Amino acid sequence: MIQIEEIKRLSVDISEEIIKHRRYLHQHPELSFQEFETSKYIQKVLDQHQIEYTSGIVKTGIVVLIRGKNPAKKTIALRGDMDALPILEDTNLPFASQNRGVMHACGHDIHTSSLLGCAIILNQLKDKFEGTFKLIFQPGEELLPGGAKLMIEEKVLQNPTVNKIFGQHVYPDLQVGQVGFRSGMYMASADEIYITVIGKGGHGALPNTVIDPILISSHLIVALQQVVSRMAPPDVPTVLSFGYIEGKGATNVIPNEVKIKGTFRTFDENWRADAHQKIRMITENLVASMGGKVDLEIRVGYPFLTNHAGTTERAKASAEVYLGKENVIDLDLRMTAEDFAYFSQEAEGCFYRLGTSNTAKNISGGLHHPKLLLDDDVLKFSTGLMVFIALEEMKS
């Protein structure tokens, strides 16, 4: 029987190596679906530890199989994403990104290195447990259609069939040493909205001769907010935000067109579909009423993420044993999105959070920010924690 003390010892024993891997990955980030060197690095580490894997899934994805005794008993998957973001890092870290304009600003370097640690530990323990662990190194979490969806289409959850799946994500809102869980509905669906308002440009001093797409766009952005404030069901959290407006005019030049980009997020699939129609109706009617034309595209993105109640409650209980009850936090709903939602639709899933801030070291920051700092001391326990959660679930 595997004892918790053995898992903790193994986690500490490999922590320096795992931190080294994290820092290398942080220095060499790659964008979604371009993680070729990242994939090679992971394979090199797996080869060094003589761990079985398959590569080339969705080009850069990797799947590790660690078979214990009676491998057909149950298959549990552990997932870590590999891609970085198009952000210019501004941290002054000695291991800051060497790929200018690309940064691991969402902590996927932590996720990947932590999963490598899980592979190393489970490989050392494979004679002591029953069942099979499938470790999924996933590309493209940050970009539609999402690497999880594409890996599922390439049968990543089959041969052998995955019964349960766990994922973890860094969370600067918690201190290092803390983790967070939430059963049931947890993260929102996420759709991308692309609007081009087409008018008739001209001289800014002669507005009577133009159809002003900037004026139309300003009315449109305000009008679309009624989808949230007046049309959304009161019990369904909903967000509609626009973060990009491009007009390319000048002080005295009204452009021909304006481009707008935004996101729509919610927690109800029926309302989600209805809201898409309302966005389209308001957009087309308002723009036409002001004399313009419009091109609208709504790219349907990740579904909302739901954590399986039983699996999550057992994982939370395991975390309380491993870290102490005082270090396990109940999480609130989040309007952010994750393509792990696709995995949790196919198997009983649990997606939990790792605290990564350290007030004493002045390490903190927001995700997707160029100054984000994450305490890689989290890697001293995150590997053992995930292994312990997975082993306890294997016994259930």
Give a structural overview.
This protein has 396 residues and is of the alpha/beta class. It folds into 2 domains: 4-186 and 304-395, 3-Layer(aba) Sandwich (Aminopeptidase); 191-299, Alpha-Beta Plaits, CATH 3.30.70. 34% of the residues lie in helices and 25% in strands. The chain is built from 11 helices and 16 strands. The longest helix is centred in the last third of the chain and has 21 residues, at 269-289. The relative contact order is 0.19. The mean pLDDT is 97.
Residue stretches low in confidence (pLDDT < 50, at least 5 long) are: none
Q: Report the β-strand fraction as a percent range.
A: 25-35%
User: Would you count the extended β strands for me?
Assistant: 16
Can you summarize the main beta sheet?
Answer: 8 strands, mixed
CATH architecture of the largest domain: 3-Layer(aba) Sandwich
> Over the alpha carbons, how many angstroms does the gyration radius reach?
23 Å
CATH class bucket of the largest domain = Alpha Beta
**Approximately how much helix is present in the residues?**
25-40%
Q: What is the 3D form?
A: elongated
- Discrete helix count: 11
Structural class: alpha/beta
Q: How would you name the CATH homologous superfamily of the largest domain?
A: Zn peptidases
Which strands sit side by side, in order, in the main sheet?
1-2-4-3-5-16-6-15
Question: What name is given to the CATH topology of the largest domain?
Answer: Aminopeptidase
Q: What's the end-to-end separation, in Å?
A: 14 Å
Q: Output the helix-strand order.
A: HHHEEEHEHEEEEEHHEEEHEEHEHEH
